[in-house]
Amino acid sequence: MYLCWKFLNLPEPTPIQYDIADYLQSNERRLVIEAFRGVGKSWITSAFVCHQLLLNPQRNILVVSASKNRADDFSTFTQRLINEMPILQHLIPRDTQRHSKISFDVAPALASHAPSVKSMGITGQLTGSRADLIIADDVESANNSQTQLMRDRLSETVKEFDAIIKPDVGRIIFLGTPQTEMSLYNTLEERGYKTKIWTALYPDKTQTVGYGHKLASVISEVTDKEGKPTDPLRFDDV
Predict the structure, then answer these.
(1) Residue 226: CA atoms inside 13 Å, Cβ hemisphere, count?
(2) Could you give the number of structural domains in the chain?
(3) Close Cβ partners of 4 (under 8 Å, ≥ 6 residues apart)
(4) Residue 238: its pLDDT value, please?
(5) Residue 231: what are its φ and ψ, rounded to 5°?
(6) Cα 89–Cα 94–Cα 96 angle in degrees, nearest 5
(7) Residue 103: per-residue pLDDT
(8) Whose C-alpha in 13, 150, 204, 229 is 20 to 30 A from the C-alpha of 93?
(9) By three-state DSSP, how is residue 147 classified?
(10) How many whole angstroms separate alpha carbon 175 and alpha carbon 133?
């Protein structure tokens, strides 16, 4: 991630961003990352996807978002990192491989029905897709979670991920910010997911108890900064 940020002329990643990246690399096969808007969840995960393809070009990664455009933005950014970063340019697809912004291969990948990276909207045709890593990036939005019926429909749709993912080796990663108290993200632990939450401000004691084991330790272990920004290098008190 440091190399990506340096290449993009961004400041060095913050402790919160490094902590999210560290959790992405954990051994958890089903995980949920809940963090505040602007922390860079998608950018961090794009860098993670590049790293995964660098380690194993045979991986098949599916990116799913509430809107097709959102998912396409993720895959387009990932492809640009591959095309432009010198350390990744050996992954640029050959002329005989898929190379669109929404579905592309990396050069060392063997022939497969599934591309190296593919982007889809949550309402798209998920059936028939195959992946060993699913990135569910903001699959919950204000538009698809306004009513209980809509939330139930979304909850049933994401169950399709278990049919898509390759057994034994597959991982599913949810990235998002809850839209309601009855958010999909708050119910995923019942299905075996492990959740970590990064708040924008350090919580008080009551809030810390409410978050419980889900609160990231990099935040829960700080007890003298209640109400202060957790990422002061990027966000101030205002």
Answers:
(1) 7
(2) 1
(3) 43, 46, 47, 50, 81, 85
(4) 52
(5) -125, 65
(6) 165
(7) 95
(8) 13
(9) coil
(10) 13
Neighbours of 130 (CB within 10 A): 15
175: containing domain: 29-200
What was the pLDDT predicted at 37?
85
Q: What is the CATH number of the domain that holds 35?
A: 3.40.50.300
125, part of any domain = yes
Q: What is the 3-state secondary structure (H, E, C) of 192-230?
A: CCEEEEECCECCCHHHHHHHHHHECHHHHCCCCCCCCEC
Structural domain includes residue 35:
yes
Low-confidence ranges of the chain (pLDDT < 50): none
Q: Which residues on neighbouring strands pair with residue 103, listed in sequence order?
A: 118
Q: How far apart are CA 162 and CA 131, in angstroms?
A: 10
Report yes or no on 23 lying in a domain: no
DSSP labels for 1-52? -HHHHHHTTPPPPPHHHHHHHHHHTSS-SEEEEEE-TTS-HHHHHHHHHHHH
203 Cβ neighbours under 8 A, 6+ residues apart: 210, 211, 215, 219, 226
Distance CA 46, CA 64 (A): 13
Q: What is the pLDDT of residue 237?
A: 64
Task: Give the pLDDT confidence of 9-33 residue by residue, as tens digits.
Answer: 999 999 999 999 999 999 999 999 9
The encoded tokens of residue 145 equal 């979670």
